[in-house]
Structures are given as C-alpha cells and as structure tokens.
Specification:
The structure is a single chain. By secondary structure, this protein is of the alpha/beta class. Helix content is about 40%, strand content about 20%. It is built from 14 helices and 16 strands. Helix 10 links the parallel strand 7 and strand 8. The chain is globular and about 75 Å long.
C-alpha cells in the first residue's frame, strides 16, 4: 500500500538536506542524472514501448500517443536538458535586496527553496525529468504523480534519477513517485499540507478544477492553453503563413500550439486560401464561421473545412484542428480573445506598431508575442532551461515556471543588541 504520509515525512527530511547543498553539489547531481539517462536509455525506451502498446490498445488518440512517446532523440534530449539546467545560474542564496534601516539594523531579502513540491501530471514522461532536475537545482524535494497511461515510463525515469542521487550521496527520497494509479491517492495528496508546500497540476481542466476546489495546499494552475493568433490588415502574408503553420503544426499536442486563428477581413480573401493550402499539407481541419467559412469552402479541395460549432472557440484542441474567425479590427480581436482565452498565449502579426502596442497592453495572458509563433511560450525557448509548468494564474508565478519560480525568500536582519522601542 502507498503510504503518502511516510512519503511526505521523507520528502520533508530530504528537502532540508537539499536546502543546504552548494551549487556545485546540486550540479553534480544533475550531471549524474544526465549520465544515468544515457546509460539506461534502452531500459527507459523498452518501458515506454510497453506504455505505447497499451495506449494503442486502449484507443488513445494520436495526439496523446505523441505526448507519451519517447524516442532515442527525445531521451537524448532529456539528458541534454539536465546538463543545461546544471549550466544555469543558481537562484538559491541570491540576495534580492539589502538596506540599512534608520535604527542601524541591516535588513536583506534572500532566495530560498520552497521546500516540497507535489506535481500531478498526465501523459508526458519528459515532465518527470523536467520537474526533478529543476527542483533539485533549486533545493526542492518532489512527490510526483503521473498518469496511468505512462506509469512504466515514469517509474523507469524515477529509478534513473534515484540511482543517480545515490551515486552522489544524496537522499533518493528527494524525488519520489506515487506508483499506485488509484485516484484516491490524488485526493490524499491534495490534503498533505503538513509536508507539501506547493502543488502544481499539469493536465486538463478537470484536474485543475479538482485541485483548486479540494487542495489544502497552495496551488499553481496553468498549462491549459486556448491560444489565439490575430493576423491584421498590415501583416506580411508570406511570414504569416509560415508562423500560422509553425504555431499549429509543429507539435499540435502541446499547450502552446495554436487553437484559434483570427483574421482581418481586408486580407481574408488573399490570406485564408494560402494558409489553407499550407495547412492542408499536414492534414489540418479548419472550423470556420460566417465569411471565413465561405472563403475557405470555395477552396475545400485544398483543406477540410467545416462550420464552427458554438463550443469550438472554447476548445484546447491538442490536435490538427484549427478554429478560424474574422474580426473587424484589433479591438474586436482583443474582445474575442478576452471572451475565450485561458490566458496562456496570444500573438499578433502586424506591421502597425499601434495595433501591436494595443494588443500587448490590453491582453493579460502569460505570454504575448508580436510577429512570432505561439510555440515560443516555453521554458527552454525563454532560456530557463526547462519548465515545471506554464502558469496562467497571476500570483507568485506567471508563464513558464523555471528556477526562480521554484523559490521563495526570507528576510534576514543583522542587529547589534537591537530592541524594538
């Protein structure tokens, strides 16, 4: 039987050990993990193949199978990511500010680890390495709970991590995994506030709702992306076709892929057929409204086009489906996005600086791009090494959660016999 209280006690003890490590010690652990990933790549891939076979037998979608799949290149990428995080500056111990008070006391504010992180996630086994390495770099212990569809892959990766920690003399309990798929254990984890300091769910809206409603632990929510891209009347259409294709097609199963394309009517007759031809090469289905549907339908031999339903602009597709809608101007684009966004990622393609400025200033999503793909909202692309999640909430962390977002701070006062008057 899985004993979460025992796991919590061990995680808390491990977090106190991790908090005292030097940067060199933490980097040594990360490099050991990278080496162990490479040494045990065949084992990890073999376990992943079993998960993939089970997933196909259960009828998982191609998008979900892609999120689950590990290849030799992806496993090599996990090792490379661990080494990149070792190369990043360590935020722990950084003094954020220091001041001399009028009474002569020296007061400073210093970054420290959060403590123990509980992370619940689905499908993507690479998340196991991302979370573990970012947490170790920042001196945090972790309790992980992945989806049942990737249980073997995650267990293999956690065994890799724990073997590496043992080799460098660190507690294996710094990274623990709930290996029982019983959903009741999720409910228990949500109430483990005596030991877990922060909870991060990575999954669908149901998981986020469950965590927000039932957790007694502070929750960082995010990762659900209904991402929008607006092509205005001044945009470079050649670039726009490339950017739309990249946003939608490069990896449609992830949270920063494009879900809704908004187009200005002045360029719709020219742009939409060109975009449809390009997207058809990858099998994208277009779900369009009104005039956008009429334009695209006349070119239906190039792409599959269907009328958009009432809920189609509130969907995170995670597949080769794209909503298309015409908007009269940047104000209408902003209003449409505000009505449907999850505040993950938005982009505007424009050569009008006023439109770009208005778009950036009036939307409050975690990342907003001008003349760039939505796919850039990513910890690796931002130079953060990797990410634990992309936060769409407004407290503590926002956007890709890298190293700094896994720290908090404490105040330190240096006195000389000071007493408060």
């Amino acid at each position: 039987m899985t004993d979460l209280i025992a796991m919590g006690i061990e995680a808390k003890a491990a977090s106190r050990k991790l908090a005292t490590l030097t940067t060199a010690q933490k980097n040594g652990a990360l490099l050991a993990i990278a080496d162990e990933i490479e040494a045990q790549a065949d084992v990890v891939l073999a376990e992943n193949e079993k998960d993939i076979a089970d997933g196909r037998a259960r009828g998982l979608t191609d998008a979900l199978l892609d999120r689950l799949l590990l290849t030799e290149a992806r496993v090599a990428g996990l090792a490379a990511d661990a080494r990149k995080i070792a190369d990043l500056p360590d935020p722990v111990g950084v003094e954020l500010e220091s001041r001399l008070l009028s009474n002569g006391m020296r007061l400073s504010r210093r970054r420290i680890p959060i403590g123990v992180l509980g992370v619940i996630y689905e499908a993507r086994p690479n998340v196991t390495i991302d979370i573990a390495t970012l947490s170790l770099k920042t001196g945090n212990a972790t309790i992980l709970r992945g989806g049942s569809e990737t249980l073997r892959s995650n267990l293999a990766l956690v065994q890799v991590i724990q073997a590496a920690l043992a080799k460098v003399g660190l507690p294996e309990t710094a990274v623990q995994y709930i290996d029982n798929p019983d959903r009741e254990l999720v409910a228990q984890l949500l109430r483990l506030d005596e030991y877990v300091d922060m909870l991060i769910p990575r999954g669908g809206s149901g998981l986020h709702k469950l965590c927000k409603e039932q957790s007694s632990i502070p929750v960082i929510t995010g990762g659900i992306g209904i991402c929008h891209l607006f092509v205005d009347e001044t945009a470079d259409l050649d670039n726009a076709v490339d950017i739309v294709e990249n946003s939608k097609v490069q990896r449609p199963s992830v949270c920063n892929s494009l879900d809704t394309l908004l187009v200005h009517p002045a360029i719709a007759q020219d742009f939409l057929p060109r975009a449809a031809i390009r997207l058809a090469q990858s099998g994208v289905e277009l779900r369009a409204t009104g005039e956008a549907y009429d334009i695209l339908y006349s070119h239906q031999h190039e792409a599959e086009v269907v009328p958009a339903g009432p809920e189609d602009f509130d969907q995170e597709w995670l597949s080769l489906i794209l909503g298309v809608h015409l908007v009269a101007d940047v104000d209408e684009a902003i209003a449409f996005i505000q009505a449907h966004t999850t505040e993950h990622t938005e982009s505007i393609l424009t050569n009008d600086w006023q439109n770009a400025t208005k778009f950036v200033n009036e939307l409050s999503s975690s990342a907003i791009f001008v003349n760039a793909s939505t796919r850039f909202n990513d910890g690796g692309q931002f130079g953060l090494g990797a990410e634990v999640a992309v936060s769409t909430q407004k407290l503590h962390a926002r956007g890709p959660m890298g190293l700094e977002e896994l720290t908090t701070y404490k105040w330190i006062g240096y006195g000389d016999g000071h007493v408060r008057p």
